[in-house]
User: Fold these one by one.
Assistant:
Number 1:
Amino acid sequence: MCDAGGEADEYPSYMVIYEALHDICKEQRSIIDKGVDLAVLCSTFGALPRLTEVGLSFCEAIEDDLSPSPFTAGMATAEDSYQYHLRVVSDAIQNSRRGAAINTISLSGFDLPYCHVWEILDLSTLLESLRKLLQSVRVLRLSYSSSPLELLSRCALDIYQLDMCCMVVKHNALQDFLQANKRSICSIGFHDVTITESSRLGSRPKLSSDILCIIMKVSPSSSCQAADCGCLPFRKEGWRMLLNGDNHPQRSGT
């Protein structure tokens, strides 16, 4: 801030900022080491017997290759952070002895770590953590990131509803995921979804029922019916396409 032209006396000293951050990081590290987050989540799920949906909102992980903080030590990459939190939530649902009641999972901002084209990331452990969380889920809702689709592109999850909101998704990732789950998916909701890397569909088209029919290789449907989209912070108008047991589109009644 001083380098940007601010006066030095306008801001707290370096040591004041450092000590405040150090205390926060120390507390966070203690929560992880003692398993406090798992215990709190188990208690919370147990106290909410009618809970059916769990939402996870991800933010950018703190990474410092030169001098890891007390919080990030041992968990210094985005994939490690995601894996840890997915595992904690999954274990809490199972340990609360009511995991079967959670039939809907929402993932927001789940971005895979950036890597150069010559880098190969081993995301197998992260994939297993995500699959474990979704193993009994029937409704999967994704927003602000298509990374879960890319990670799960060839996994059959036995979900019957997929909702996508405010995303840019690669054509191949969406196509592979829908093909892998074609037998179970009966409902696809979408709002503000852009398709990329498709030579067949043109330059960055918006997802539509016609495009879904092309991707899923099913007969063309009539126009999708408007449906409320539950994306935050405001509900907006999206679209929903229903499919019958043979995966042929049918008119939505919502």
Note: Helices lie at 14-34, 36-47, 78-95, 124-133, 147-151, 171-180, 209-216.
Number 2:
Amino acid sequence: MRFLIIIFSVCFLTACQLTQQPETVKTVDMYNRDGDMVGTAKLSEDPKGVKIELKLEGLTPGFHGTHVHEIGECEAPDFKSAGNHLNPEKKKHGLLHPEGPHLGDLPNIEVDTSGKVDTELTVSDATLLKGKNSLTERGGTSLVITAEADDGMSQISGNSGERIICGEIKDKKGETDDQEPTDPTEKEKKK
């Protein structure tokens, strides 16, 4: 009888620990400006940050900019509700900029001639857990694809064109984000 009680206790405690573990994998539905779902982004914790497995279709062939934005809202048609690039360190924009990059700056993606992309990206130093570089805290963030390639240097967004695809990165579906967008030019105004 004691043996059964011990086994039951161990199973119960293990189950409690499993339900309290933070979510380290999430799938984000990606939508175009017409509100059509065009693919998914599977996010997972990685030793280097957050890995993104991106699968999209219906894009114009060629290179497109990819960024994580500071607010977890994707209101079509322009997705400006997503705010600016995620930039908790207040760095300059661009993977090539000596004073950058923003945490949300990602490499360009290449769309094939059939309009599809299937690639992996990493948001270096980011997390899906708690912390300053969390993609899910404070109402979440958004993954945004732009019409043009990011030049990796120009301020404030790399001349990457209009926002054409967006997906909300949140802990809970339906969660709202009451955060106000930051002004990336604020630092320049003070100088």
Note: The two ends are 75 Å apart (CA to CA).
